[in-house]
Amino acid sequence: MPDVAVNGIRLFYQQAGDGPDVVLVHAVTSNQAVWAFSGLVDALAADYRVTTYDLRGHGASDRPAAGYTSADMAEDFRQLHAALDLGPAVLVGHSFGGVTALHAAALATEVVAGVILSDSFFPGLRDEEPNFGKMALWSDLRETFGRVGADLGGTVDFGRLFRAAADLPPEKMKELEAIYGAFGKGWLRQLAPLAETTCGEDVMAVAGLTAGVIASVRQPVVALYDEYSPFLATCRWLKANLANCTAEVIPAARHLAMLDNTAGFTEAVRRHLGRLCTGREACATKP
Q: Is 253 contained in some domain?
């Protein structure tokens, strides 16, 4: 897998296909493998040049001790974009990947042609979101970790999750790996190393992406939110406050649409990309 030096670290990436540039940005605790596993890369590569990469601290990329806010991640993307000589790109970001994508759209308007968000929570919109912390996915996670004696608390706390994973005895980690299976095993093994970083705290920082900055984004934004998402108030706020925002609900999903409803999510992404990348006005290829 190739890598590139950006912003003082090395990020590992992959590319497939040819055409207008599309960059897929994964969530915190995930890595770029999720896009291949869900089949999205193959589904898009026939029409686009698709770039995936591991965020700092994730997958094969470097794991610095600090620098995990959406501002840091957006700057990583800006430098990755330049290093790979990409054209104006549509960013598809899941969860915190969507926060990073929208922050990049605000800070690097010349390189971001549009953004497709998937079930993203924005720390800068916390006051708009009455359901923050009430994630069914976190409840499931808390219950599963509780089966091996780890307490994650009642609300979303990534730092606590990372520390709990780091503190688990090897035999308890093996129990968890057996529960989560082969794909989940890779996810679990990422958690403990992040306990050595500021990632858990940084991802909940506003980091300059205030409600006002979010509302200032002028590129087209597609807000894909899951049917059972705890963040539907955020979806409504984005639709009401962004200059060019389309909102859509992905049925039968509850934060992991690319896995919960792979066909529905893939079809929605393809459809919206087709609209955003019509002509050279958006997704222009490099001359």
A: yes
Count CA atoms closer than 13 A to 270's CA, side-chain side: 16
Is position 169 within any domain? yes
Contact 234, 122 (CB under 8 A): yes
Distance CA 65, CA 168 (A): 21
Q: Is residue 284 part of a domain?
A: no
∠ at Cα 246 (242, 249), nearest 5°?
A: 125
116 pLDDT tier (thresholds 50, 70, 90): very high
Domain of residue 193 covers: 136-201
Asked whether residue 283 is domain-assigned, the answer is no
Helix 136-146 × helix 170-194 angle, to 10° = 140
Q: What is the mean pLDDT of residues 48-77?
A: 98
Tokens standing for 1? 């897998």
Dist. CA 97–CA 76, nearest whole Å = 12
Q: Are residues 122 and 166 in the same domain?
A: no
- 89-111 burial, b at 16+ Cβ within 10 Å, e below that, comes to bbbbbbbbbbbbbbbbbbbbeeb
What's the domain count of the chain? 2
Provide the token pair at 268: 């929605």
**Domain end (from 159, 183, 201):** 201
**Two tokens at 99?**
């926060």
* Cα–Cα distance measured from residue 55 to residue 7, given in angstroms and rounded to the nearest whole number: 12
The verdict on pTM exceeding 0.85 is yes
Q: Mark whether 52 and 97 lie in a shared domain.
A: yes
pLDDT at 285 over 50: no
Over pLDDT 70: what percentage of the chain? 96
Specify the residue for token string 């979303």: 156
